[in-house]
Design goal:
The complex is a heterodimer of chains A (about 180) and B (about 190). Chain A is mostly helical and about 180 residues long. Chain A folds into two domains: about 30-110, no CATH class; about 115-180, no CATH class. In chain A, about 55% of the residues lie in helices and about 0% in strands. Chain A is built from six helices and no strands. Chain B folds into two domains: about 1-85, no CATH class; about 120-190. The longest helix of chain B is centred in the middle third of the chain and has 26 residues, at about 60-85. The chains are: A mainly alpha (about 180), B mainly alpha (about 190). The interface between A and B is large, with 133 and 137 residues.
């Protein structure tokens, strides 16, 4: 079976939006307005916390990304590694104790799809490599792009618009690509 | 306060970044993944529906509003950090080896967060810079959606949940990054 013959609905995106456009997150925000506004303020606050970290740890720096890809400092590896360890322990605790959201909804993590292409896990290594090319060329991944924009590096707006164009191009070509 | 303006060490910043994953899960069951916002932003564009690929036709407010508010926070955090603590001098804190490698590529200005020789509107006249900013941005957007996530969605959320596909994606990120660093950059900047 070629990738072209895969109907659109089987070509599952792994994050947040199911093929029919419904949110795949738990607690999709159907709650009442007060709760919803409170949660949105919470997301804003967590984002602010992250934006400060991206800047002050210099994760958002082109210089640091170059240093990482040249294996000349432990800094970026320490940050990504310790972030993964803390996140992994947290996720295990959430699963072990069946923690719920502040709204009382169960917390659900959906596993990444394996894909249906004849080329094994095509989307992860092909998509991943294309992303890596962009990451090193631009010296910023999506999160730091927004932190840099807020920090006043105005030209990054052009990179964000270009990233939207890339997303749109993927959307247009999607049914022809192996996943 | 002086120490806060220095480069924050990895063992402080890394664990705090990792905490974002459980915080988002507990606040609303949300999975940390920033590049999905690029899709939400495309979906939110006021273009005629028939011009949009089906991948971009969905209720972005329902599935993506929380995430768009979240990255608005990230941008605000970037603003706040610079306004209160000043622009970090990342170019000065990188290792000596990186600095001399970058000087060999022709970089001379090591002040600030990003090199002004690349990240300024006037530098765009250079085809190399155009390729880095516009081409790099395009590939980040294309590759992240193709792979189903970026550094946050795969390298942090995915690896934290022990997802093998995410590990494959992260190997891809590095394959691409090394190719640019050791092959492409010397060609276009040299």
């Amino acid at each position: 079976m070629t990738s072209k013959s895969i109907p659109d609905f089987e070509c599952q995106d792994t994050d947040q939006v199911s093929p029919d456009g419904r949110s795949t997150d738990a607690g999709g925000g159907a709650g009442k307005d007060g709760l919803r506004l409170g949660a949105l303020l919470g997301y804003f606050a967590i984002g602010t916390f992250l934006g400060i970290l991206f800047m002050m740890s210099e994760v958002a720096s082109w210089f640091r990304i170059q240093e990482m890809f040249r294996f000349q400092s432990f800094h970026m590896y320490g940050i990504i590694g310790s972030a993964v360890v803390v996140a992994a322990i947290s996720v295990q605790l959430i699963k072990r104790f069946n923690l719920r959201t502040l709204n009382g909804e169960p917390i659900r993590l959906s596993p990444k799809e394996w894909g249906s292409s004849r080329i094994p896990v095509a989307r992860y290594w092909i998509g991943g490599t294309l992303f890596g090319l962009g990451w090193a060329l631009l010296g910023a991944c999506p999160g730091p792009m927004f932190a840099l924009l807020g920090g006043g590096i105005s030209i990054i707006a052009l990179a964000i618009v270009s990233a939207m164009a890339g997303t749109w191009a993927y959307a247009a070509l999607r049914s022809h690509l192996p996943h | 306060m002086e120490f806060l303006s220095q480069s924050w060490p990895w063992y402080v910043a890394g664990p705090l970044i990792g905490l974002v994953v459980p915080l988002l899960l507990v606040v609303g069951g949300k999975v940390f993944g920033i590049s999905a916002n690029l899709r939400h932003m495309c979906a939110a564009l006021p273009a005629p529906e028939q011009l949009k690929p089906s991948f971009l036709r969905y209720d972005w407010k329902k599935s993506g509003l929380w995430n768009l508010v979240f990255i608005l926070g990230v941008a605000f955090g970037g603003f706040l950090a610079v306004a209160v603590l000043g622009m970090p001098d990342a170019g000065a804190s990188i290792s000596e080896a990186t600095r001399s490698d970058l000087m060999a590529l022709g970089l001379t200005d090591f002040s600030g967060m990003v090199p002004a020789e690349i990240f300024s509107w006037s530098a765009l006249a250079s085809p190399a810079v155009l390729l880095m900013v516009v081409g790099g941005g395009f590939l980040v957007g294309f590759g992240a959606r193709y792979a189903g996530g970026c550094t946050s969605g795969h390298a942090i959320s995915g690896l934290a949940d022990l997802q093998l596909p995410s590990l494959i994606a992260v190997f891809g990120f590095f394959a691409g990054g090394l190719l640019v660093t050791f092959v492409l950059l010397p060609m276009i900047l040299g």
